[in-house]
Amino acid sequence: MQTSDKKQFKITLLEERGFVKFHIRHADFKDRIKKHIAKGSRAEYENYLVEFKRDIEQYFADKTITYDLTSNYVNYYVERKKQSSHLFNYKDEFVDMKRKTFNRRSNSYLSNSSINSYIKAIEYFKKFLKECRKSELPEEINSSVLNDFFDFMQPLSHNYRAKLHTRLKEYLTYIKSQNGVNVDKTYIESCFTEQYDNQETDEDDRSLTFNEMNKLILLRSDFKNNKIQLPAYKTAKTIPVSLQIQQRETKIMNIKRTLDCFLFMCSVGMYVSDVNKIKFTLRNKGNLSYISYRRAKNNSYCKGIPVLDKDCFIGKTILKEYGIKSNSNFPLNLSLNNFDKNLKIISQLVGLDFMITSKMARKTFASTYYFDYRVNIGDIQMMLGHKEVRHTMHYLRIDDDEFANRVFEQLGRTS
What we know:
- Helices cover 49% and strands 13% of the residues.
- By secondary structure, it is of the alpha+beta class.
- The strands form four sheets. A three-stranded antiparallel β-sheet has the order 1-2-3, with helices on one face.
- A hairpin with a 2-residue loop joins strand 6 and strand 7.
- Helix 4 packs across helix 6, helix 7 packs antiparallel against helix 8 and helix 8 crosses helix 11.
- The longest helix is centred in the middle third of the chain and has 28 residues, at 241-268.
- It is elongated.
């Protein structure tokens, strides 16, 4: 057995041809031990060296130090560390961390769809590394690997690939923050952003016209005057008549509230998740009122949004009728699924040949301010909380003629 005053190991880091190695010596054996760690530079593994020195000294505190025993321990230690640094070992704790992340501003946790997008990104990346026979060690993941990963997802749409690519970079950043884990720092240089074709529209990717909005306002008036009759329910023998009447009244009330909420969203550019999760700030300046809030989706700041009654906008009326104050919002209390179901019924009640969706509210707000009120696109960008003007362009679907006319208009000339 060794005495308590035994000599310490002499351990240094060597850098050879882009690789880092341990160089280990001790007075109790003549030869030296070299052990490959990983790619990188010595500076990146200084913490690893401190941890290794501590662990090996503790391990041999009551053991005889020989070359073979030391070599076996070094091999075991380094391989164990590599295994613990395996790229996908952190998946579960990363996802769990995301589930527990609470946004104080939006007063909510991440949605299940957002959590699933992180899981999907990691699963796609694992499939990519396996099929392309690439290393799963974090230090092997660089910008080139991430660029290849983006191309690997080619069957998916560009925007979805960009989203998964961004999610994966968040995962790599999380791994990099763990003690003793080295990720090639160039991974951050791989960057892809969502793209929008302003002329390519989906069926429900449109705004409502003044005429269509006025139909909704007339329907709102009919609700207030009790002129709306919904199709009769099928009778159910197992449910008391009084309960069926109560359910019907609740259904009508929810449809009316959905209509009011949609008109409010059109007036201020909010989306359903903003209404359900976010409390806005309401300010008054003389006879003018405006709101500011942070979006539930990405925490972006939307500011200076007028609350007014003008043409098809009745935001001020709705604020007054529902008694909505600052640090509150429209009292919806409906899921997105039920909200869209009620909008479908509303579409049928006003005789539209398409189905209104919750997405149309923000687009109606943006299009009305740009095309009808001639508000500058930069101001609309600020009200919608878009970080880049191209996102606002996506909302507006501006064609070349409209863009040219707007430029000439600002120059004081019209076609």
